[in-house]
Amino acid sequence: MAAIEIRDLQWGYAKGGQHIEVLSGINLDLSPGEVVALLGQSGSGKSSLLNLMAGIEPLQGGDILVKGQSLAAMGEQQRSLFRRSQVGFVYQFFNLIPTLTAAENIELVLELNGETRQSAHDRARQQLRELGLEDKAQVFPDVLSGGEQQRVAIGRALVHRPPLILADEPTGNLDANSGRIVLQRLLQQTREQQACLIIVTHSQAVAAQADRILTLTEGQLQESQGELAW
Q1: Is 211 within 8 Å of 34 (Cβ atoms)?
Q2: What is the DSSP letter of 59?
Q3: In what order do the strands lie in the sheet with 69-70?
Q4: Domain boundaries along the sequence of the chain
Q5: Under the phi-then-psi rule, with left for phi > 0, alpha for psi from -120 to 50, and beta for the rest, what region is 169?
Q6: What pLDDT digit, counting tens, does each position of 127-138 carry?
Q7: Alpha carbon of 204 to those of 37, 42, 103, 143, 191: distances in Å?
Q8: Short-list 19, 18, 2, 79, CA closest to 219
Q9: What's the confidence (pLDDT) of residue 178?
């Protein structure tokens, strides 16, 4: 049974008085624990698709259902609450809050979702232990290496156990060794939590770790063997 369903998704933008269609009739089902790599040239709409799935952008046509919840039926405030509880987003440039420690960056997500401070404290430290960062709990992001920052960002994305994980070039700003560690942790925790993960990547090595590889071309998703990466 699909945990995530995309049905006839359409999206575009206005330019020079014309409507430029970026996504045209996208359909996709994702099962719990499934990892999908999303490839495509720059400007093909990969980030737009992630933003639509996260509820950042409103839908223009079609629907996205996350465990039966329809994004098409949601207003802006409902999408914001949906994104807070149902989505984990991992960014290429980490996007950690610089004035919060590693633990506090993770705790904040839990507190926003109604956890008590003590529960958030305990769960954040458990997440850091699982990521091999227990000794970095009280460290601020600017003291952490790039790989450590990205592991904290993964912890922040996964700690509230969302059914949908979206990762936009999560290893693109890391050296090869740090990238391997980050990818391994992301895949392991996603599968353990039976979430659905979509990774936007330009790397064949990253794509090879996914259960499926999809390429976004001219507004359409196509199954790929990963022989092309941009």
Answers
A1: yes
A2: P
A3: 18-30, 4-15, 61-66, 69-70
A4: 4-95+162-223
A5: left
A6: 999 889 999 999
A7: 9, 16, 32, 31, 20
A8: 19
A9: 86
CATH class of 4-95+162-223: alpha beta
Residue 211 has pLDDT above 50, yes or no: yes
CA-to-CA distance for 96 and 152, rounded, in angstroms?
8
Q: Is the pLDDT reported for residue 226 higher than 60?
A: no
CB 202 within 8 A of CB 191: no
At residue 96, what is the residue type?
Answer: L
The H or E element spanning position 4 is strand 4-15
pLDDT digits (tens, 9 = 90+) for 133-191: 999 999 999 999 999 999 999 999 999 999 999 999 998 888 888 888 889 989 998 99
* pTM of the model as a whole: 0.91
